Amino acid sequence: MRVLISGAGIAGPSLAWFLAKTGARVTIVEKSPALFPHGQNVDIQGSARKVIKKMGLMDQVLRFNTTEKGTQLIDPNGRPFAPFPVREGSDASPTSQYEILRGDLAAILYEATKNHPNVTYLFDTTVQKVISNDDNVVTVELSNGEVQDSDLLVAADGQWSKVRKQCFPPESINVVDIGANVVYWTIPRIPTDNDWWNVYQALGSRVITLRPDPHNTIRATFTAMPSTEAQKKAWMDAARGGRQLQEELLKKEFADAGWQTQRLLDSMGQADDYYFQIVQQIKMSKWSSSRVVCLGDAGYAPTPFTGMGTSLAITGAYVLAGELSKLDPGEHPSKALDAYESKFRPFVEETQKIPSFFPAFVHPGTAWKRWLSQTLISAMSKVVANPWLANKLHSSNDDDFVLPQYSSFDDGADGEPRL
Length: 419
Known about the structure:
Number of helices: 14
Radius of gyration: 22 Å
Strand order of the largest sheet: 5-4-13-14-15-12-16
Distance between the termini: 20 Å
Strand content: 25-35%
Largest sheet: 7 strands, mixed
Helix content: 25-40%
Number of strands: 18
């Protein structure tokens, strides 16, 4: 089977790893001229941990742990309270022992696949045009001018997938606005920084966070929930208008937020990994069309509020590759694509369910709402401080999605691959 994958982030290389074991010939095109090193914290949760173990990559993942000790709230004077420390075997903290930077995880997956004889990477290359997608073949024109025939085209090119836009009608794609905006970048570390995820709830539905990383820098985040139509329009215009307009908006919107706001605003212009995002989900009526299929954020972006985008990409790649591995030689992939969707969609839809109150709860607009939010969070912190209660209430769940078993990937009694 000849498979063309658009996107060398998390989903694409994960899929390539498993497809290569089945004998498929995989080409991955990536618009960046080299592996994209940037990105904020991601968390490998639930069944995705089992997939990473099947790939034999868990040691590398743990080696690149962000070093984050836990999550804690910060008051306007910088004093921490309501700590949620990491505890092995428990998911009681928003911080996980499997916390890793997106760029580090992408590098691990790339290194695990780049030298396989069945995998080819083409950087600085995109799918320029999908020429045809029929019963026999999917034909594309690449940005380098090459025309390529494949048995399957995988859109793993993110939330705003250009492949998806070409191959699926607009009415089949539902973009769900969560009502929040987030901006990420990296700042220099200073002696007063610590190894916790520090969360400051400013008034006016604004949140500022600082997180450690294993590279001696700090990952900064601004999030905001606009409360008026004028604010919503300003954020949307900034998203379309480019970085200069975005930075001007952030300086205006966060100027009086307090805590370490000025430090972050001063550093923003020099950041080479600055990223501005309107928080939205992607929901599709169907994930595939003949020989084209969507994977990861391209098909079902869940938003950072779920903490599950990376895990869905990894687990989805395993299921998709597994179903493709069951096809007979020359069989149309639609059978496998339908099975992938049938098995994985219920879990995706459950994961995408964000309680309607949650975004506003963590982004309090007024002083009394912040008091209520912090009182409840502080109470939760005291509960999980008791190890017995923490384990009862938040035991680690590696079986949130029960992985189907595929003979192509389970070569030994322990389920570990023999590479």
